[in-house]
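Before surveying the methods themselves, we first show a specimen of the format, giving the amino acid sequence and backbone structure tokens:

:::
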Amino acid sequence: SAAIIDFEDVPHLMVAGTTGSGKSTCLQDIILTIAAKYSPKEAVFYIADDKNTLSTYSELPHVVQSAFSRKDINLVMESVIEVLDERKRLLAGAEISEYNKGHKEKLPHVFVLMDETDTVIKRHANTDSTSAGGIRSALEEIAAEGRSLGIHLIIASQKPIGRNVDTTIRDNIPGRIALQVTNAQDSRNILGEKGAEKLTGKGDAIMKLNGTSTRIQCAMTTPEERKKAVKVIRKMHS
């Protein structure tokens, strides 16, 4: 699926589906595709994941900062907001593509990767509402302002309902991949329409890019294959 997503046109992406639908595998395949296609000078990653789903990718040379605990996730999001603010000053209203055409030292595209976004926000809310609010606020700011700055959200969510992943975030994410969900309302929360509740699971998905829906099959990769891919990518850039 990553190969047919142009992040210039679709700056942010949400992947959602129930447990066992293939959501996390889809997210990880997208990460590997970006890492294989772009060098660390062209694309960098910030990873926020308190379930360790994405820990394998912390070894990629593209990773600037990663967090696998609640306290560190705040630090990652603060770092991304610092990058966002710095780029607003540097670009002064220009698009990243315009800036890179006129400068020898190119700015890399920044990908903020978060698995189980609803769980991250909910867990922080249960322990510290200020922390959860900070994460939600950061996601809102990146979703709203990141496009022209070359800062992209790729988030996965099991149940992106309003109290977890609110409409301000969702409305600014034009790319959606819905895997199998439990009911039509969950499908509407992801795609704005029903249909994902009828998917068969195991990577069967509906991809919606800028209003156009397409039925797709996400690739199946094993943890061992993904670890090997990380090693290969590391060698490519060593």
